[in-house]
From TrEMBL:
GO terms for molecular function: AMP kinase activity; ATP binding. Belongs to the adenylate kinase family. This is adenylate kinase. PANTHER family: NUCLEOTIDE KINASE. It comes from the Eukaryota. It is found in: Cytoplasm. It is an enzyme of class 2 (transferase). It holds the Pfam family ADK. The keyword Nucleotide-binding applies. GO terms for biological process: pyrimidine nucleotide biosynthetic process. Its EC number is 2.7.4.3. Keywords: ATP-binding, Cytoplasm, Kinase, Nucleotide-binding, Pyrimidine biosynthesis, Transferase.
Length: 199
């Protein structure tokens, strides 16, 4: 399942809910990139500069981080959060990983996303949650990421589900579960120890 939408539309929040209830592996390209930055590697330093400028990290870097994370994940049902962010990334993702079964588009106004990001920045201390970077991230989203949604609507029309997120998170989550009803059949059952066979 691919989650798309602008910065601050609520992708991470909804993914957390689905992971809790259905056991998916949640892969956020933003989190993967921030972990690389935190590692202090040369690659991380380059990514840090690009992210602070609100620009996209090179495609091969993001794809490789995603593939590594997918390989390490225990659950092989994935929520891909915030990727692909450009049409060429969608093509490359399909070529190297595969086509998504579902594309969830979280729809939110720029005004509300800006308000949410500024509020988050006060608590998170994230370097990219400041007004200057937010404006640049919006420009990148409109120019490069929004066309990805249009691409999937044409290439995978039955897979695309659009959900408004200008309401409370629990209301959005109810809509998400409804949209995924055909794909997400039931919550992951609790693990029960196997009974010994005494026959």
């Amino acid at each position: 399942i691919v989650f798309l939408g602008g910065p601050g539309c609520g992708k991470g929040t909804q993914c957390e809910e689905l992971v809790r209830d259905f056991g998916y592996s949640h892969l956020s390209t933003g989190d993967l990139l921030r972990a690389e930055v935190a590692s202090g590697s040369e690659l991380g330093k380059q990514c840090d500069t690009l992210m602070k400028e609100g620009k996209l990290v090179p495609l091969d870097v993001t794809i490789n981080l995603l593939k590594q994370a997918m390989g390490k994940a225990k659950c092989k049902r994935f929520l891909i959060d915030g990727f692909p962010r450009a049409v060429d990334q969608a093509h490359e993702f399909e070529a190297k990983v595969g086509k998504p079964d579902v594309v969830l588009c979280l729809d939110c106004s720029l005004e509300l996303m800006e308000k949410r990001l500024l509020q988050r920045g006060k608590a998170s201390g994230r370097a990219d949650d400041n007004i200057e970077t937010i404006k640049k991230r919006f420009e990148t989203f409109l120019a490069e990421s929004k066309p990805v949604i249009d691409y999937y609507r044409k290439s995978l029309p039955k897979a695309v589900k659009t959900i408004p997120t200008d309401k409370m998170p629990d209301e959005v989550y109810a809509d998400v579960k409804t949209a995924l009803k055909a794909t997400v059949e039931k919550p992951v059952p609790p693990k029960v120890p196997a009974k010994a066979d005494f026959r």
